[in-house]
Amino acid sequence: MGITDTPRSFQEIILRLQSYWATKGCAVLQPYDMEVGAGTFHPATTLRALGPNAWAAAYVQPSRRPTDGRYGENPNRLQHYYQYQVLIKPSPPDLQELYLGSLQAIGIDAELHDIRFVEDDWESPTLGAWGLGWEVWCDGMEVSQFTYFQQVGGHDCHPVSGELTYGLERLAMYVLGADHVMDMPFNDPSAPIPLTYGDVFRQTEEEYARWNFDTADTAVLLRHFEEAEAHCSEILSKPAEDPKTGKRIVMAHPAYDQCIKASHIFNLLDARGVISVTERQAYIGRVRALAKACADAFLTTRAGGWTDAA
Amino acid sequence: MSDLLIELFSEEIPARMQRRAADDLRQRVTDGLVEAGLTYAGAVAHCTPRRLALSVQGLTDVSPTTTEERKGPRTDAPEKALDGFLRSTGLTKDQLEVADDKKGQVYLARITRPGRPAAEIVAEVLETTIRNFPWPKSMRWGEGSLRWVRPLRSILCILTREDGASVVPLDIDGIVAGNTTEGHRFMSPGRFAVTSFDDYEARLKRAHVILSSEERADHIWQDATNQAFAAGLEVVEDAGLLAEVAGLVEWPVVLMGKIGDAFLDLPPEVLQTSMKEHQKFFSVRDKTGKIVRFITVANRTTADDGSTILAGNNRVLSARLSDAKFFWENDLRVARAGMETWTDALSNVTFHAKLGSQAERIERIAALARELAPAVGADPDLAERAARLAKADLSSEMVFEFPELQGLMGRYYAEAAGEDPAVALAAQEHYSPLGPSDAVPTAPVSVAVALADKLDTLAGFWAIDEKPTGSKDPYALRRAALGVIRLVLENEIDLNLLEAFDSCLKLHNAPRPEPNDSDDFTGMAADFNLLSFFHDRLKQHLKSEDIRHDVIDACLTGDRTDDLANVTARARALNSFLATDNGENLIQGYKRAKNILDQAEAKDGVEYSYGADPKLAETEEERAIFAALAPARPAIEAALAAENYPAAMTALAALRAPIDAFFEAVQVNADSEIVRRNRLNLLSEIVRLCTRIADLGRIGS
């Protein structure tokens, strides 16, 4: 170990993580093309954590949490941010060491810093999922979430997946020494056109904060929620055999898209302040029911371990 | 003899579970060893973030050989019976002996179980322990089905004798026990072998792991207090935090850092809570009590003496405290503007689906606090005002972030709003007392709001039939009732609970429950079981004063059982009285009198309540009772009127000797019917006088 050269920009940290996990054998995937609240919602995590098949994937996932919007003014709160997500199934015995290697790769030298695994159990009521693990601290700051998935969509995970989630902005601010997220260099500061995180995102944070909090049409959103919910169930109600091709095609992923949609619409409605405390639980329950149905369906697909012989 | 060393090495164990797990490991393993016939001299368990370790000294090498004699069927019994016996003993017919029995000759089996080597037993016991370990939460990992708190990585299990150490053969789902372990994750990577517990502990220390959590905690505390002392400061004690932090490190390194000037004006509780909850920092204060520095405990030394680590922690803390300062300043703005936005916001917060919003609840508490104010000596206007503001801080940003600061922030904000100091204090104190050892508020306005808050909660949940059952008490109603009891008793408040319940139920627009509700908590007859619930809690509470249940039951008579201060005063007086010779004997005399009277009344079909005539007294002993009753009666009535129960008991005590003497010498059932009746009427007077204070019949022997 010893001196590690420090990355110079936000994007360099992402690139180093991508290349690190690629060398460790992960399929480096791309972000899912839908609005999600966290990297866990990507089907490469939620669905692939289910069933017997081995899996190893790493990807950046843009994530949206409408209630966290602060018009770009708060030094570390954003309604749109990035997570870096790694999912390996079965969890390898050296996952902690692999993870620590990734910190080294982005310039966090374990010889100089204090890295700790502090109890933090993870639960996603909307996904019907939970796991045990830690939040990883670097000098007192949480830099990642480390979870051994025990259940997803109400199903026991067998084998168990190891999941790593890095909050990229916070991690990068720490590595790059930025006190305000908007001041953090996005590309190389010595590039001909140096851009900060603020150059890229300050305006969108403002725009979305206004829309999320005050402008989004709640009647439309409520209707979209109902539609996504109904559509999800409808997709799953189709017979497994496709009448046109005669093949067995269970549409777990299209149905799951509707579940993701419902979840994000719920988050928007929450930010608009139109969901009361009592209703909240009911909405979460409805999304969970969809996630569970999609998980059930996925387990009857080939990727979910279904075989013709069965 | 050998010494056993076990280490279960895993990924990081939650700090809060470590101590208990080490104790469970010791208990389960030693119990298992003893059950299998081994004995040992001593056992000590240790824990660090990555390991549970157990050292058992002086373990016997083999379990003893045991022989059991078992009697079988008679020698002339059918073949089938013999077959069954052979199967159950695992012997053959020629191994059986024949013995004489009362019934004739029977087969006798002598079953010898040879002793087993310690290693075999240890392996079995450890496997059972691991597979059934009582973790509060456990998990699976990889492809396996073994459960542990986090992935179990290795097992060290050796038996050490004078001639060396040997590994106990054991394989649990592919984890093969060995004689090696690992040191500090970062400072001493790599595995090493050990030969005994002493060797293990010493090598671990060389590998930057302090095995004993007590030693780690001591080290942290020593170093922290030394560093603070050197700077003329003092560490704020926090035993819980110390234990937790000691469970987060294997090689503790104490670092002290400064808190930015910009944050020094925050209330000390905010600084302390923010640092403790988020960062697990200790607070360091100066001579004036102001928190000026923090102490963090790192898990390693570094080439730069921790300066990078401290700088990082400082930045994280600054970000946290910036948030806290932001909340504080925003909140102060709202507070100075009168807190209306907060109280208004509480209309949108549901307290309970059937009991309405927080705002509605506050309306009820305000009305009740006003009503209770005179009884507790508070100004009604202030009590009402305090109740209206007491929960305003629930809408503040600070309390949203740190719920544990509720009440305290309320006080700061009410002060900032220029409210009366009694109103501000009530915001902080009205939640109290929270537990049996929590201090009870004494300021009248605080007491009025505290009582109103708890009574409204109790009556409300009673009205919607959400009462505690068994171990389930989700709304902490037992705690609320105990709070009312302690407020009433410690402030000596005369409060008629039934009237207060009625007021509460009116405010809830709820009907008073039906009399004789079958769902009674104590089995006592009561027309309103919320009162019984209070009586039950009162008994629990008075246990700490060694006041017996039956004494309290005896005092739950008359029409003032809803006045807990009164019931308690009577119970205390009766309890002291019963501890005296007079008390004990008077009870016996009372019971005797009552028995004779009850039997006579039942037999004669009359009630002997006409009053006894001293002129008809035939014996000295009777006359002595009349003589004692004459002054005792007014003395007792006067004491009762003054609620001076010890005095009433003293007056009653004067009757003891004459009553004893009476029963000694006098036959109640005299030949003369007139004399008999007069004596029964005399007993009736005694019985009635004795029960003026309490129903002595409920006192058990």
TrEMBL record, chain A:
One of its GO terms (molecular function) is glycine-tRNA ligase activity. GO terms for cellular component: cytosol. It catalyses: tRNA(Gly) + glycine + ATP = glycyl-tRNA(Gly) + AMP + diphosphate. InterPro entries: aa-tRNA-synth_II/BPL/LPL, Gly-tRNA-synth_heterodimer, Gly-tRNA_ligase_asu. This is Glycine--tRNA ligase alpha subunit. The gene is glyQ. NCBIfam families: glyQ, PRK09348.1. Tetramer of two alpha and two beta subunits. One of its GO terms (biological process) is glycyl-tRNA aminoacylation. PANTHER family: GLYCINE--TRNA LIGASE, CHLOROPLASTIC_MITOCHONDRIAL 2, GLYCYL-TRNA SYNTHETASE. It is found in: Cytoplasm. Its EC number is 6.1.1.14.
From TrEMBL, chain B:
GO terms for biological process: arginyl-tRNA aminoacylation; glycyl-tRNA aminoacylation. Keywords: Aminoacyl-tRNA synthetase, ATP-binding, Cytoplasm, Ligase, Nucleotide-binding, Protein biosynthesis. Residues 58-80 are annotated as: Disordered. It is found in: Cytoplasm. It catalyses: tRNA(Gly) + glycine + ATP = glycyl-tRNA(Gly) + AMP + diphosphate. It is an enzyme of class 6 (ligase). Residues 588-685 form the DALR anticodon binding domain. Its EC number is 6.1.1.14. One of its GO terms (cellular component) is cytosol. GO terms for molecular function: arginine-tRNA ligase activity; ATP binding; glycine-tRNA ligase activity. The keyword Transferase does not apply. It holds the Pfam family DALR_1. Transmembrane segments: none annotated. Residues 67-80 have a biased composition (Basic and acidic residues). Tetramer of two alpha and two beta subunits. Belongs to the class-II aminoacyl-tRNA synthetase family. This is Glycine--tRNA ligase beta subunit.
